[in-house]
Amino acid sequence: EAGVAQSPRYKIIEKRQSVAFWCNPISGHATLYWYQQILGQGPKLLIQFQNNGVVDDSQLPKDRFSAERLKGVDSTLKIQPAKLEDSAVYLCASSFTKFSGANVLTFGAGSRLTVL
Amino acid sequence: TQLLEQSPQFLSIQEGENLTVYCNSSSVFSSLQWYRQEPGEGPVLLVTVVTGGEVKKLKRLTFQFGDARKDSSLHITAAQTGDTGLYLCAGGMDSNYQLIWGAGTKLIIKP
Q: I need a surface site. Which of A21, A29, A92, B99 has the fewest CB within 10 A?
């Protein structure tokens, strides 16, 4: 089975510019996650979708970050305007169900963002 | 606030040695997952433990879930250079749709 696809793999921008990341989850996975991973830290959940609805976006900085999952398949995460502290790897993951107890998340390789 | 603390944060040992890394919390979890993340890649699930006291083995890796389901350990026997990576634990709760992540243990195995 194909894995979780993400693009671009690397992006360098200047502060105050905008950037968008794309994710295509595993076919049939209803739940899609965007995580932010700063170097040396564990992943931090930004937003979780169940099909095309938002389940949790409590840690998404909504003044600058937005995400959508139209048609309940692929998703985009946008940052506008970017700040220096947004430099991180943005990981997309998907899972078959939304319940966390024994959920198995499959991650993409990530998109590394550097903000200068 | 639920937290998962991983220790040590960093470990560098010689090939062939044994090691144990820990994942501790004051909260009770319904399940605990261990992932390994290699540079430039996303985390990959190694194991899920769901029963207090449960022990699972994956070749040279032994995972244990604490009796009270608040902590977990990962023991590697005769470490190999291929074991190098960031080991992350994540706790899940049945009442919640979110995984709580630790900060990880960065493991380097030297040849």
A: A29
**Averaged in consecutive runs of 10 residues, what is the pLDDT profile of chain B (111 residues)?**
87 97 93 93 94 95 96 97 96 78 95 94
Which of B44, B50, B98 lies closest to A102 in CB terms?
Answer: B50
User: Coil, strand, or helix at residue A115?
Assistant: strand
- Positive or negative, the Cα torsion across A101, B45, A74, B103? positive
CA dihedral A79, A11, A4, B39 (to 10 degrees): -120
> Looking only at Cα atoms, what is the longest distance across chain B?
44
| Contact status of A111 with chain B (Cβ, < 8 Å) | no
- Which pLDDT tens digit goes with each residue over B11-27? 999 999 999 999 999 99
B24 close to B71: Cβ distance less than 8 angstroms: yes
pLDDT at residue A102, as a whole number: 67
